[in-house]
Specification:
mainly alpha; 11 helices; about 280 residues
Length: about 280
C-alpha cells in the first residue's frame, strides 16, 4: 500500500476527528446555537452515510467476500459482518451513561443560563460537573474510535469515498464538541478550557485509524478487507439511525431534517456518478 495513500487517509481521519473543535469553538465564540443549521447539517450527514453504506460500501464488501469465499459463504459473511459492526457500536453506546453520552444534546445557551443558576458556594457541584465533562470527553473518545477506523478504511480503498465520509463524520462531531464544552464550562467558567478538552477528545478518531492500521495491515487480505468494510457499513448505518437523525429532529423541524437527509443522499449519489 502506497505511503501517500496511507498518509492521505490518516489526514482525512484527523480532519474528521478534530471537527469536535468546531463545536467547542462555536461554544467559545457564539452566544446562540443555530439549531436550524445543525438540524439540516446532521440530516445531510445521515443521508451521506446511509446512502454510501448501502449503495457503495456494502456492495464492495460483498464483492470482495464472494470473490474469495464464494457466493453463498461470501454473502453470509457480508451480512454477518454488517450486523457485527452494528452490534459493536451499539454495545459501546449502551455502556455510556445517559448524560455523559455525547449524543445527549446540549446547546451553547446552556453555558450562560446554567452558570446564572448554579450555587457557586457549593464546590462539590463543580467537581461533579468537571467529572461529567471529563467522562463526556472519554465517551466521545470511545465512540470516535470505530468511526476513525471507518473513515480510514474507506479512504485507503477509495479516496473520493473517504472524503465524503470524512465530511459526514466531521458534521456529526460538531454537536459532540458542544456536549463536552457545556459541562466543562459549567465547572470551570473557562471557555478556553472547554475548547481545549473538546478539541483534544477528537484525537481518538485518528488514534482509532492508527491502531486499526497497525493491527490489521499485517493480515490484510481481500477477506479481511471485505469483513472490515461490511462492519464499517453497519457502524455508519447505526450512527445515522441512532444518533444523527434523532439529534437532527431534536435540534430542528422534521422537514428540515428530511430535506437535509435527501440532499445528503443526492450529493453522495452525484459524487459517485461523477467518478464512474
Amino acid at each position: 500500500m502506497a505511503t501517500e495513500t496511507v498518509l492521505f487517509a490518516f489526514g482525512l481521519t484527523l480532519f474528521a476527528g478534530l471537527a469536535t473543535g468546531i463545536g467547542s469553538a462555536l461554544a467559545f465564540f457564539a452566544r446562540t446555537t443555530n439549531t436550524r443549521f445543525l438540524s439540516i447539517a446532521l440530516g445531510f450527514s445521515a443521508g451521506v452515510m446511509i446512502y454510501v453504506s448501502f449503495v457503495e460500501i456494502f456492495f464492495k464488501a460483498r464483492q470482495e467476500l464472494t470473490a474469495s469465499l464464494g457466493t453463498t459463504y461470501g454473502t453470509w459473511a457480508t451480512v454477518g459482518a454488517f450486523f457485527g459492526g452494528i452490534a459493536l457500536i451499539g454495545i459501546i453506546d449502551k455502556l455510556v451513561p445517559n448524560y455523559e453520552n455525547p449524543h445527549e444534546l446540549h446547546s451553547i445557551e446552556e453555558m450562560d443560563h446554567g452558570l446564572e443558576n448554579l450555587p457557586r458556594n457549593e464546590a462539590h457541584d463543580f467537581r461533579k460537573l468537571h467529572r461529567m465533562g471529563l467522562f463526556t470527553a472519554l465517551a466521545i473518545g470511545i465512540h470516535n474510535f470505530p468511526e476513525g477506523l471507518a473513515t480510514f478504511t474507506a479512504a485507503i480503498t477509495d479516496p473520493n469515498l473517504g472524503v465524503a465520509i470524512a465530511i459526514a463524520i466531521a458534521i456529526h462531531n460538531i454537536p459532540e464538541g458542544i456536549a463536552v464544552s457545556v459541562p466543562i464550562y459549567y465547572a470551570t467558567g473557562s471557555r478556553r478550557k472547554a475548547f481545549k478538552l473538546s478539541f483534544l477528545s477528537g484525537l481518538s478518531e485518528p488514534a482509532g485509524a492508527l491502531i486499526g492500521y497497525l493491527l490489521l495491515m499485517p493480515f490484510f487480505s481481500p477477506t479481511v478487507f471485505g469483513l472490515l468494510f461490511a462492519a464499517v457499513a453497519g457502524i455508519m448505518v447505526f450512527i445515522s439511525l441512532d444518533e444523527l437523525l434523532p439529534a437532527a429532529e431534536e435540534y430542528g423541524e422534521h422537514h428540515s431534517t428530511i430535506y437535509g437527509l435527501i440532499a445528503g443522499m443526492g450529493v453522495m449519489a452525484l459524487s459517485l456518478l461523477l467518478f464512474l
